[in-house]
Amino acid sequence: MTTIAIENRGHTGTADDAQFNISFARQPILNRDGMLCGYELKVRAPQPPAVDAPAAKAHTGADAEASADEASDPARQLARAVLDGLNQGQVRGALTGHPAYVDVSREMLLDDAILQLPAERFMFELPPSIEADDALVLRIVQLHGRRYRFVLDEVSQPNETFAKLLPYAEVVKIDFPRAPRALLPKLASVLKSAGKLLIAAGIDLQADFDTAHGLGFDRFQGYYFARAQASTTRRVSAPRHALLNLLQLLAGEPTVSQLEAELKLNPVLVMHLMKLANSSGLAVGHKVTTLRDAINATGTDRIARWTQLLLYADGRKVALEDDPLLQLAATRARFMELAIERLPEAGRDEIDAAFLTGVFSFVDAVFGGSLESTLNVLTLSRPLQAAILRREGVLGLLLSAVDALERGAWDELAALCERLQPLTVEELAQMGLAAGAWAGVADRSAQGLERIED
């Protein structure tokens, strides 16, 4: 999950302009093969203040252009602020090339600023509370003509709004925990027959994923893939014992010869290291052709962090940026070290500890068994184990903060910031955005792994 804080002033140019802090939470959407195929952007925005003037009438086409009356409407100002935020390059960067699913309000749909969003990159989610009157339907038809796509969101069972908007929706997102289980097979069958793409939302358990997968759902939103119960269906990109042996060797002060001997036992690790050394620009002036050169060019610190992230790489995939668990772990780790740098008396050791805390907080999803037993095998220090297992200390607070970001638990995050001063929600938002963008380039060019050292 990634957020961004946007300060946006109204477009009237007067002293009464509204100012909004907008944040976006990034939640992964996976396909049937368990690969990343999109993100939902959940919006955190202030409630617009009430206005005394009568509600403006719905309008479309040329009438949708801003007027003085509209500019003084806080709801429309807020809609414009959200649309401006979605257009920010930082938000696009955090999507790492994947399409964004975003809830849209009536005001957002009727604002012509929505046309600035590229149709191929955004899916507009229609909440069940939206008023599906003739004016809104006409606007949806107009936007559909410009190739914008729509999603019926938070569907638990059909109602009048669902029936009215279904013809204009390409995707239907089912609120899986709330939908009656007896209704799901028929609902899924009817919608699939109608050519709709189905997303199962709220999938945090392996059993729910198995059920939805069996019913033919196309996409899955939730953190089931980061739970220990998912480990039985996951393959790692190198033997587990090999990765553990390499991590234990790196925990000391290995010589180049020792590292070379350990790595030669694992061709997959050698392949990844050679790719890292040649693509990151570490070996200036010549191509790395030997394992020893790759070790010298990369350095033990970078190799250690690369190995920690490689623990999460699914052996079925080549592109690490499409691996949801690796992306989640890498984003957490980078967020943790960015955040702790802003706290008093944080040195190199504290920053390294923060990264380790984030990267190993999901390790039970790879190895199975209890998290505590796996952490013991990794020989992590007691403060790190206390942070991961019991959320103790500053590292535990930061881990709770990134967990709140992933869930879009804004009130919980604000409460944590009271204990993490001088950090603010807005700062954590920016750090989450940077961490998500960093994780997304870790394999394509190795720039992500390189920037750990920046």
From TrEMBL:
Highest taxon in the source lineage: Bacteria
Return the Pfam families for the record: EAL (PF00563), HDOD (PF08668)
Protein name (database record): Diguanylate phosphodiesterase
Annotated spans, Disordered: 48-74
Coiled-coil region(s) at which residues? none
Record-linked InterPro entries: dGMP_Pdiesterase_EAL/HD-GYP, EAL_dom, EAL_sf, HDOD, RNase_Y/CdgJ
Question: PANTHER family, per this entry?
Answer: CYCLIC DI-GMP PHOSPHODIESTERASE CDGJ (PTHR33525:SF4), PTHR33525
